[in-house]
Hints:
Blueprint (H helix, E strand, L loop, with lengths): L1 H15 L4 E3 L6 E5 L3 H11 L8 E3 L3 H5 L2 E2 L2 H10 L4 E7 L7 H4 L4 E5 L4 H9 L4 E2 L14 H8 L19 E4 L5 E4 L5 H8 L10 H4 L14 E2 L10 E6 L8 E5 L4 H17 L5 E3 L7 H12 L3
Parallel strand pairs: 3-6, 5-8, 10-13, 11-12, 11-13
Antiparallel strand pairs: 1-2, 2-7, 3-7, 4-5, 5-6, 8-9
Helix pairs in contact: 1-6, 10-11
The structure holds threonylcarbamoyladenylate and magnesium ion (MG).
Threonylcarbamoyladenylate binds next to β5 and β6.
Amino acid sequence: MKNNLSNIKKSKYYLDKNECIGMPTETVYGLAANAYSSKATSKIFKLKKRPKKNPLIVHYYNLEMLKRDCIINSNFLKLFKNFCPGPITFVLKLKKNSRISTNVTNNKKTLAVRFPNHSITRKLLKKLEYPLAAPSANISTGISPVTKEDVIDEFGKKIKFVLNGGNSKVGLESTIINLVNKIEILRLGGIEISQINKVLKTSLKFRKKNKKMIVPGQGKIHYSPGVPIRLNVKKPKLSEAFILIKKRKIFSKNFYYLSKKGNLKEAAKKLYKTLRIIKKKKFKSISVEKIPNTGFGEAINDRLIRASKF
Ligand code: TXA
Ligand code: MG
Protein backbone atom coordinates (compact mmCIF):
# COMPACT_ATOMS: atom_id res chain seq x y z
CA MET A 1 0.00 0.00 0.00
CA LYS A 2 2.76 2.41 0.99
CA ASN A 3 4.66 1.28 -2.06
CA ASN A 4 1.65 1.99 -4.27
CA LEU A 5 1.39 5.50 -2.92
CA SER A 6 5.00 6.34 -3.72
CA ASN A 7 4.63 4.80 -7.17
CA ILE A 8 1.53 6.90 -7.82
CA LYS A 9 3.47 9.98 -6.76
CA LYS A 10 6.31 9.02 -9.07
CA SER A 11 3.86 8.56 -11.95
CA LYS A 12 2.39 11.99 -11.33
CA TYR A 13 5.87 13.50 -11.23
CA TYR A 14 6.73 12.18 -14.71
CA LEU A 15 3.30 12.92 -16.19
CA ASP A 16 3.40 16.52 -14.90
CA LYS A 17 6.73 16.85 -16.70
CA ASN A 18 5.10 15.82 -20.00
CA GLU A 19 6.72 12.38 -20.00
CA CYS A 20 5.06 9.06 -20.94
CA ILE A 21 4.66 6.25 -18.44
CA GLY A 22 3.39 2.67 -18.57
CA MET A 23 0.01 2.45 -16.81
CA PRO A 24 -2.02 -0.60 -15.76
CA THR A 25 -5.67 -0.96 -16.66
CA GLU A 26 -8.05 -3.89 -16.34
CA THR A 27 -7.90 -4.46 -20.14
CA VAL A 28 -4.25 -4.04 -21.12
CA TYR A 29 -1.42 -1.72 -20.05
CA GLY A 30 -1.43 1.73 -21.64
CA LEU A 31 1.33 4.16 -22.63
CA ALA A 32 -0.01 7.22 -20.86
CA ALA A 33 0.59 10.97 -21.21
CA ASN A 34 -1.20 14.25 -20.44
CA ALA A 35 -4.01 14.45 -23.02
CA TYR A 36 -4.01 18.26 -22.88
CA SER A 37 -0.35 18.51 -23.83
CA SER A 38 0.87 18.34 -27.43
CA LYS A 39 4.42 17.86 -26.24
CA ALA A 40 3.49 14.86 -24.08
CA THR A 41 1.15 13.20 -26.58
CA SER A 42 3.58 13.56 -29.49
CA LYS A 43 5.96 11.34 -27.48
CA ILE A 44 3.38 8.53 -27.47
CA PHE A 45 3.31 8.43 -31.29
CA LYS A 46 7.10 8.46 -31.50
CA LEU A 47 7.60 5.68 -28.95
CA LYS A 48 4.93 3.42 -30.44
CA LYS A 49 5.89 4.22 -34.06
CA ARG A 50 2.20 4.95 -34.44
CA PRO A 51 0.89 6.78 -37.52
CA LYS A 52 -0.27 10.31 -36.60
CA LYS A 53 -3.66 9.70 -38.20
CA ASN A 54 -4.56 7.05 -35.61
CA PRO A 55 -6.34 8.84 -32.72
CA LEU A 56 -5.90 7.94 -29.04
CA ILE A 57 -8.31 6.92 -26.27
CA VAL A 58 -8.48 9.36 -23.35
CA HIS A 59 -8.85 7.99 -19.80
CA TYR A 60 -10.94 9.91 -17.24
CA TYR A 61 -11.51 9.63 -13.51
CA ASN A 62 -15.17 10.76 -13.53
CA LEU A 63 -18.04 12.37 -15.43
CA GLU A 64 -17.24 15.82 -14.17
CA MET A 65 -13.81 15.72 -15.83
CA LEU A 66 -15.27 14.24 -19.02
CA LYS A 67 -17.91 16.97 -19.35
CA ARG A 68 -15.15 19.57 -19.76
CA ASP A 69 -14.17 17.97 -23.06
CA CYS A 70 -17.15 16.07 -24.50
CA ILE A 71 -20.85 16.40 -25.20
CA ILE A 72 -22.67 13.48 -23.58
CA ASN A 73 -26.03 11.93 -24.53
CA SER A 74 -28.65 9.59 -23.03
CA ASN A 75 -27.21 6.38 -24.53
CA PHE A 76 -23.85 7.27 -23.06
CA LEU A 77 -25.40 7.79 -19.62
CA LYS A 78 -27.16 4.41 -19.72
CA LEU A 79 -23.95 2.58 -20.63
CA PHE A 80 -21.91 4.62 -18.17
CA LYS A 81 -24.27 3.68 -15.33
CA ASN A 82 -24.07 -0.01 -16.15
CA PHE A 83 -20.46 -0.56 -17.11
CA CYS A 84 -18.22 2.20 -15.75
CA PRO A 85 -15.61 2.12 -14.57
CA GLY A 86 -15.01 -0.79 -16.92
CA PRO A 87 -13.72 -2.13 -20.25
CA ILE A 88 -15.80 0.03 -22.61
CA THR A 89 -14.77 3.04 -24.74
CA PHE A 90 -17.24 5.63 -26.06
CA VAL A 91 -16.78 7.78 -29.12
CA LEU A 92 -18.39 11.14 -28.32
CA LYS A 93 -18.56 14.65 -29.79
CA LEU A 94 -15.70 16.87 -28.73
CA LYS A 95 -16.63 20.25 -27.22
CA LYS A 96 -15.41 23.30 -29.15
CA ASN A 97 -13.59 24.65 -26.09
CA SER A 98 -12.05 21.29 -25.11
CA ARG A 99 -8.38 21.37 -24.13
CA ILE A 100 -7.59 17.98 -25.67
CA SER A 101 -4.46 18.18 -27.82
CA THR A 102 -5.16 17.93 -31.56
CA ASN A 103 -2.53 15.14 -31.65
CA VAL A 104 -4.99 12.96 -29.74
CA THR A 105 -7.90 13.42 -32.15
CA ASN A 106 -5.96 13.89 -35.37
CA ASN A 107 -7.92 17.16 -35.66
CA LYS A 108 -11.25 15.28 -35.77
CA LYS A 109 -14.37 16.43 -33.93
CA THR A 110 -14.87 13.20 -31.98
CA LEU A 111 -13.05 11.75 -28.98
CA ALA A 112 -12.76 8.15 -27.73
CA VAL A 113 -13.04 8.10 -23.92
CA ARG A 114 -13.04 5.54 -21.17
CA PHE A 115 -13.03 5.09 -17.38
CA PRO A 116 -10.56 2.34 -16.53
CA ASN A 117 -11.41 0.01 -13.68
CA HIS A 118 -8.10 -0.42 -11.91
CA SER A 119 -7.74 0.84 -8.35
CA ILE A 120 -4.17 2.14 -8.65
CA THR A 121 -4.86 3.89 -11.92
CA ARG A 122 -8.06 5.43 -10.57
CA LYS A 123 -6.06 6.77 -7.63
CA LEU A 124 -3.57 8.27 -10.05
CA LEU A 125 -6.27 9.82 -12.29
CA LYS A 126 -7.89 11.38 -9.22
CA LYS A 127 -4.67 13.21 -8.40
CA LEU A 128 -4.17 14.71 -11.88
CA GLU A 129 -5.53 17.93 -13.31
CA TYR A 130 -5.77 16.44 -16.78
CA PRO A 131 -7.03 13.18 -18.32
CA LEU A 132 -4.59 10.64 -19.76
CA ALA A 133 -4.28 9.72 -23.42
CA ALA A 134 -3.21 6.07 -23.50
CA PRO A 135 -3.02 3.61 -26.36
CA SER A 136 -1.99 0.04 -25.58
CA ALA A 137 1.67 0.06 -24.51
CA ASN A 138 3.11 -1.90 -27.43
CA ILE A 139 4.99 -0.97 -30.60
CA SER A 140 2.34 -0.43 -33.34
CA THR A 141 0.80 -3.62 -34.82
CA GLY A 142 2.25 -5.82 -32.04
CA ILE A 143 0.75 -7.68 -29.07
CA SER A 144 -0.74 -5.60 -26.26
CA PRO A 145 0.97 -5.89 -22.85
CA VAL A 146 -0.82 -7.36 -19.83
CA THR A 147 1.92 -7.00 -17.20
CA LYS A 148 4.57 -4.44 -16.24
CA GLU A 149 7.22 -6.81 -17.61
CA ASP A 150 5.48 -6.91 -21.01
CA VAL A 151 5.67 -3.11 -21.21
CA ILE A 152 9.38 -3.21 -20.41
CA ASP A 153 9.70 -5.93 -23.06
CA GLU A 154 8.27 -3.48 -25.62
CA PHE A 155 10.05 -0.23 -24.73
CA GLY A 156 12.97 -1.08 -22.42
CA LYS A 157 14.65 2.05 -21.09
CA LYS A 158 12.90 4.30 -23.61
CA ILE A 159 10.19 5.02 -21.06
CA LYS A 160 10.92 6.52 -17.69
CA PHE A 161 8.56 4.52 -15.52
CA VAL A 162 5.96 1.75 -15.49
CA LEU A 163 3.37 1.80 -12.73
CA ASN A 164 2.97 -1.77 -11.56
CA GLY A 165 -0.62 -3.00 -11.28
CA GLY A 166 -0.17 -6.75 -11.60
CA ASN A 167 -1.84 -8.81 -14.32
CA SER A 168 -4.57 -7.09 -16.34
CA LYS A 169 -7.81 -8.78 -15.28
CA VAL A 170 -9.61 -8.69 -18.64
CA GLY A 171 -6.49 -9.17 -20.79
CA LEU A 172 -8.14 -7.89 -23.99
CA GLU A 173 -8.78 -4.26 -25.03
CA SER A 174 -12.02 -2.40 -24.30
CA THR A 175 -15.10 -2.66 -26.51
CA ILE A 176 -15.43 0.55 -28.56
CA ILE A 177 -18.89 1.97 -29.28
CA ASN A 178 -19.61 4.98 -31.45
CA LEU A 179 -22.36 7.16 -29.94
CA VAL A 180 -22.13 10.07 -32.40
CA ASN A 181 -25.09 10.09 -34.82
CA LYS A 182 -25.26 6.33 -35.50
CA ILE A 183 -24.71 3.79 -32.70
CA GLU A 184 -22.11 1.27 -33.81
CA ILE A 185 -19.73 -1.26 -32.32
CA LEU A 186 -16.29 -0.30 -33.64
CA ARG A 187 -14.17 -2.88 -31.79
CA LEU A 188 -15.04 -6.06 -29.92
CA GLY A 189 -13.55 -6.27 -26.45
CA GLY A 190 -14.05 -6.55 -22.70
CA ILE A 191 -17.83 -5.97 -22.66
CA GLU A 192 -19.90 -8.39 -24.74
CA ILE A 193 -22.27 -6.92 -27.36
CA SER A 194 -25.17 -8.85 -25.84
CA GLN A 195 -24.69 -6.92 -22.58
CA ILE A 196 -24.75 -3.60 -24.46
CA ASN A 197 -27.86 -4.62 -26.41
CA LYS A 198 -29.63 -5.42 -23.18
CA VAL A 199 -28.96 -1.96 -21.73
CA LEU A 200 -29.73 0.03 -24.89
CA LYS A 201 -32.55 -2.30 -26.02
CA THR A 202 -30.85 -2.59 -29.42
CA SER A 203 -29.68 -5.46 -31.61
CA LEU A 204 -26.24 -4.19 -32.56
CA LYS A 205 -23.85 -6.53 -34.32
CA PHE A 206 -20.19 -6.21 -35.10
CA ARG A 207 -19.65 -5.59 -38.81
CA LYS A 208 -16.11 -6.00 -40.01
CA LYS A 209 -16.36 -4.10 -43.28
CA ASN A 210 -15.59 -0.40 -43.69
CA LYS A 211 -14.23 -0.09 -40.16
CA LYS A 212 -10.93 1.15 -41.49
CA MET A 213 -12.27 4.63 -42.17
CA ILE A 214 -13.94 5.10 -38.78
CA VAL A 215 -11.40 3.28 -36.62
CA PRO A 216 -8.06 4.06 -38.21
CA GLY A 217 -6.23 1.75 -35.80
CA GLN A 218 -8.17 -1.37 -36.71
CA GLY A 219 -6.02 -2.06 -39.76
CA LYS A 220 -5.61 -5.51 -41.21
CA ILE A 221 -2.38 -6.45 -39.45
CA HIS A 222 -2.58 -5.97 -35.72
CA TYR A 223 -1.97 -7.81 -32.45
CA SER A 224 0.77 -9.74 -34.24
CA PRO A 225 3.49 -11.70 -32.43
CA GLY A 226 5.64 -11.36 -35.57
CA VAL A 227 5.27 -15.10 -36.30
CA PRO A 228 2.91 -16.59 -38.96
CA ILE A 229 -0.36 -17.89 -37.51
CA ARG A 230 -2.65 -20.53 -39.08
CA LEU A 231 -6.24 -20.68 -37.88
CA ASN A 232 -8.86 -23.46 -37.54
CA VAL A 233 -6.16 -26.14 -37.47
CA LYS A 234 -7.03 -29.71 -36.50
CA LYS A 235 -3.55 -31.24 -36.69
CA PRO A 236 -0.53 -29.00 -36.03
CA LYS A 237 2.90 -29.58 -37.56
CA LEU A 238 5.44 -31.03 -35.14
CA SER A 239 7.57 -27.87 -35.08
CA GLU A 240 4.65 -25.51 -34.47
CA ALA A 241 3.27 -24.04 -31.29
CA PHE A 242 -0.38 -25.14 -31.07
CA ILE A 243 -2.94 -22.97 -29.26
CA LEU A 244 -5.97 -24.81 -27.91
CA ILE A 245 -9.13 -23.44 -26.39
CA LYS A 246 -9.05 -26.04 -23.61
CA LYS A 247 -6.71 -28.58 -22.08
CA ARG A 248 -6.50 -32.01 -23.75
CA LYS A 249 -5.78 -35.42 -22.37
CA ILE A 250 -3.00 -36.02 -24.88
CA PHE A 251 -0.74 -33.06 -24.44
CA SER A 252 2.59 -32.19 -26.06
CA LYS A 253 5.06 -29.56 -24.86
CA ASN A 254 4.29 -27.46 -27.95
CA PHE A 255 0.64 -27.20 -26.86
CA TYR A 256 -0.70 -24.10 -25.11
CA TYR A 257 -4.26 -24.04 -23.82
CA LEU A 258 -6.16 -20.79 -23.22
CA SER A 259 -8.47 -22.13 -20.53
CA LYS A 260 -8.46 -25.41 -18.66
CA LYS A 261 -12.14 -26.02 -19.37
CA GLY A 262 -12.67 -23.88 -22.45
CA ASN A 263 -14.16 -20.86 -20.66
CA LEU A 264 -14.08 -18.04 -23.25
CA LYS A 265 -13.64 -15.19 -20.78
CA GLU A 266 -10.63 -16.94 -19.25
CA ALA A 267 -9.32 -17.67 -22.76
CA ALA A 268 -9.56 -13.98 -23.72
CA LYS A 269 -7.53 -13.12 -20.63
CA LYS A 270 -4.78 -15.57 -21.56
CA LEU A 271 -4.56 -14.86 -25.29
CA TYR A 272 -1.91 -12.10 -25.37
CA LYS A 273 0.05 -13.68 -22.56
CA THR A 274 0.20 -16.96 -24.49
CA LEU A 275 1.19 -15.27 -27.76
CA ARG A 276 4.00 -13.44 -25.99
CA ILE A 277 5.30 -16.65 -24.38
CA ILE A 278 5.28 -18.42 -27.76
CA LYS A 279 7.06 -15.49 -29.41
CA LYS A 280 9.78 -15.60 -26.73
CA LYS A 281 10.29 -19.32 -27.31
CA LYS A 282 11.13 -18.42 -30.91
CA PHE A 283 8.68 -20.78 -32.62
CA LYS A 284 8.71 -20.22 -36.41
CA SER A 285 4.96 -20.68 -36.72
CA ILE A 286 1.78 -20.94 -34.65
CA SER A 287 -1.38 -22.89 -35.33
CA VAL A 288 -4.66 -22.37 -33.49
CA GLU A 289 -7.59 -24.75 -33.20
CA LYS A 290 -11.08 -23.50 -34.04
CA ILE A 291 -12.38 -21.15 -31.34
CA PRO A 292 -16.19 -20.93 -30.85
CA ASN A 293 -17.42 -17.63 -32.30
CA THR A 294 -19.80 -16.68 -29.48
CA GLY A 295 -19.47 -14.14 -26.66
CA PHE A 296 -15.81 -13.40 -25.93
CA GLY A 297 -14.94 -15.98 -28.60
CA GLU A 298 -15.91 -13.41 -31.23
CA ALA A 299 -13.37 -10.94 -29.81
CA ILE A 300 -10.68 -13.65 -29.61
CA ASN A 301 -11.29 -14.62 -33.25
CA ASP A 302 -11.21 -10.96 -34.32
CA ARG A 303 -7.74 -10.54 -32.76
CA LEU A 304 -6.46 -13.85 -34.13
CA ILE A 305 -7.62 -13.11 -37.68
CA ARG A 306 -5.77 -9.78 -37.63
CA ALA A 307 -2.70 -11.37 -36.02
CA SER A 308 -2.70 -14.05 -38.76
CA LYS A 309 -2.39 -11.40 -41.52
CA PHE A 310 1.33 -11.05 -40.70
O1 TXA B 1 -8.52 -1.24 -23.49
C1 TXA B 1 -8.15 -0.26 -24.16
O2 TXA B 1 -8.96 0.41 -24.84
C2 TXA B 1 -6.68 0.09 -24.13
C3 TXA B 1 -6.33 0.57 -22.71
C4 TXA B 1 -4.89 1.02 -22.58
O3 TXA B 1 -7.22 1.57 -22.33
N1 TXA B 1 -6.35 1.08 -25.11
C5 TXA B 1 -6.31 0.81 -26.44
O4 TXA B 1 -5.88 1.86 -27.23
O5 TXA B 1 -6.61 -0.27 -26.90
P1 TXA B 1 -5.37 1.69 -28.71
O6 TXA B 1 -4.85 3.02 -29.12
O7 TXA B 1 -4.41 0.58 -28.78
O8 TXA B 1 -6.68 1.41 -29.53
C6 TXA B 1 -7.63 2.43 -29.65
C7 TXA B 1 -8.44 2.29 -30.88
C8 TXA B 1 -7.64 2.52 -32.16
O9 TXA B 1 -8.00 1.51 -33.08
C9 TXA B 1 -8.11 3.89 -32.63
O10 TXA B 1 -8.06 4.02 -34.03
C10 TXA B 1 -9.53 3.93 -32.11
O11 TXA B 1 -9.46 3.30 -30.85
N2 TXA B 1 -9.99 5.31 -31.89
C11 TXA B 1 -9.43 6.27 -31.14
N3 TXA B 1 -10.12 7.42 -31.21
C12 TXA B 1 -11.17 7.20 -32.04
C13 TXA B 1 -12.25 8.00 -32.52
N4 TXA B 1 -12.40 9.26 -32.17
N5 TXA B 1 -13.14 7.40 -33.35
C14 TXA B 1 -13.01 6.11 -33.68
N6 TXA B 1 -11.99 5.30 -33.29
C15 TXA B 1 -11.09 5.85 -32.48
MG1 MG C 1 -3.49 -1.13 -29.50
